[in-house]
Amino acid sequence: MAYKKYDEDYKKMIVNLYESGKKISELEREYGISHSNIKKLDR
After folding, report:
1. Is residue 27 within 8 Å of residue 38, measured between CB atoms?
2. What is the C-alpha separation between 23 and 1, in angstroms, rounded?
3. Which of 7, 10, 22, 27 lies most in the core, judged by the most C-beta atoms within 10 Å?
4. Residues 24, 22: Cα–Cα separation, whole Å
5. Is residue 1 part of a domain?
6. 13 in a domain, yes or no?
7. pTM passes above 0.85
8. Cα–Cα distance between 27 and 23 in angstroms, integer?
Protein backbone atom coordinates (compact mmCIF):
# COMPACT_ATOMS: atom_id res chain seq x y z
CA MET A 1 0.00 0.00 0.00
CA ALA A 2 1.34 3.42 -0.95
CA TYR A 3 1.65 6.10 1.65
CA LYS A 4 0.74 9.76 1.38
CA LYS A 5 3.47 12.33 1.47
CA TYR A 6 2.42 15.61 3.04
CA ASP A 7 4.09 18.92 2.20
CA GLU A 8 5.48 21.06 5.02
CA ASP A 9 2.68 23.65 4.92
CA TYR A 10 0.03 20.94 5.22
CA LYS A 11 1.87 19.34 8.15
CA LYS A 12 2.17 22.69 9.92
CA MET A 13 -1.53 23.38 9.41
CA ILE A 14 -2.51 20.02 10.95
CA VAL A 15 -0.13 20.47 13.89
CA ASN A 16 -1.40 24.02 14.50
CA LEU A 17 -5.00 22.82 14.50
CA TYR A 18 -4.11 20.02 16.93
CA GLU A 19 -2.15 22.32 19.24
CA SER A 20 -4.96 24.89 19.24
CA GLY A 21 -7.30 22.30 20.72
CA LYS A 22 -8.88 20.53 17.76
CA LYS A 23 -9.54 16.89 18.62
CA ILE A 24 -7.63 14.18 16.80
CA SER A 25 -10.90 12.47 15.91
CA GLU A 26 -12.07 15.66 14.16
CA LEU A 27 -8.80 15.96 12.25
CA GLU A 28 -9.01 12.31 11.22
CA ARG A 29 -12.53 12.79 9.90
CA GLU A 30 -11.94 16.14 8.18
CA TYR A 31 -8.54 15.44 6.61
CA GLY A 32 -8.44 11.66 6.31
CA ILE A 33 -5.27 11.34 8.37
CA SER A 34 -4.86 8.49 10.85
CA HIS A 35 -4.39 9.07 14.58
CA SER A 36 -0.83 7.75 14.46
CA ASN A 37 0.14 10.02 11.58
CA ILE A 38 -1.20 13.07 13.39
CA LYS A 39 0.86 12.13 16.44
CA LYS A 40 3.95 11.68 14.23
CA LEU A 41 3.47 15.13 12.71
CA ASP A 42 3.36 16.65 16.19
CA ARG A 43 6.95 15.65 17.00
Report:
1. yes
2. 27
3. 27
4. 7
5. no
6. yes
7. no
8. 6
Domain that includes residue 13, residue range: 8-41
2 located within any domain: no
Give the C-alpha separation, 35 to 18, whole Å: 11
C-alpha distances in Å from residue 36, one per residue of 2, 10, 27, 28, 39: 16, 16, 12, 10, 5
In a domain, 14, yes or no: yes
The count of domains in the chain is 1
| Residue 17 amino acid letter | L
Convert the pLDDT of each residue in 1-30 to its tens digit.
567 788 999 999 999 999 999 999 999 999
With DSSP H G I counted as helix, E B as strand and the rest as coil, what are the percentages for the chain, rounded to 5? Answer: 65, 0, 35
